[in-house]
Write a structure and sequence with these properties.
It contains three helices and six strands; from the N terminus they run H-E-H-E-H-E-E-E-E. By secondary structure, the chain is an alpha+beta fold.
Amino acid sequence: MKSVYEVLRNPIVTEKSMKLVESGKYTFEVSQDVNKIEVKEAVKQLFNVDVLKVNIINGKAKKKRVGSHQGYKAKVKKAIVTIKVGQSIDIFEI
């Protein structure tokens, strides 16, 4: 079994994700080879909250170019975690 730090890489803090925090949804960047069950268990174990729902988004690698050089930005897998009403995760509170 993977550790929670291998499953959850870091929180995603953008305007859209901070708007979702108001409704009890938190966004994390996760490892490429995890599933919803592993994300749910990792959040539950790390933050001691009740997870109601997990949505996974697989982002594609984007083609980038600098001058005559071409390459790709790394693909990102995100998890949007919905927690029980009345609970919160402290790292998102400002």
